[in-house]
Design brief:
The structure is a single chain. The chain has about 130 residues and is mainly alpha-helical. It has one domain. About 50% of the residues lie in helices and about 5% in strands. It is built from five helices and two strands; from the N terminus they run H-H-E-H-H-E-H. Strands 1-2 form a two-stranded parallel ribbon. Helix 2 packs parallel to helix 4. About 25% of the residues are buried.
């Protein structure tokens, strides 16, 4: 996906997602192409009313990742994940890029990442 998604399948996916209120992408962590597809799809759908991205992280971690991305883009997220007291299943660079792309696609005054999971990995970060 180095040149971005294209073709009849992509066109169909965007058309169907534009007609829906929600789009769910099932994934397995650690697959770069899923992160790339998700980022491209969110960017393509942003003008159609898509304004939030639900991610498999806790609400607090999602909020802090969004703040890091707003401060320093992709590097802000990479720095956040590099802290010894944090860990995320979204540790691949492509997954961090996905999060940065989603955050930068939204206006600065809008919260875009919606964390809906419990915190099981970065508990030390939360209590520090």
């Amino acid at each position: 996906m180095s040149d971005g998604p294209a073709g009849r399948g992509w066109d169909w996916l965007v058309q169907e997602a534009r007609a829906a209120r929600f789009t769910l992408i099932g994934e397995e962590h650690g697959v770069a192409e899923t992160a790339q597809l998700s980022a491209a799809l969110f960017k393509a759908l942003r003008g159609s009313g898509y304004s939030r991205m639900a991610i498999e992280l806790s609400p607090i971690i999602a909020q802090d990742i969004e703040a890091a991305a707003r401060r320093n883009g992709l590097q802000g997220i990479l720095n956040f994940f590099a802290a010894p007291e944090t860990w995320s299943p979204m540790h691949l660079r492509e997954e961090a890029q996905f999060l940065a792309t989603v955050v930068t696609a939204a206006p600065r005054n809008e919260r875009v990442l919606w964390g809906f999971d419990r915190e099981i990995f970065s508990d030390r970060y939360l209590i520090s």
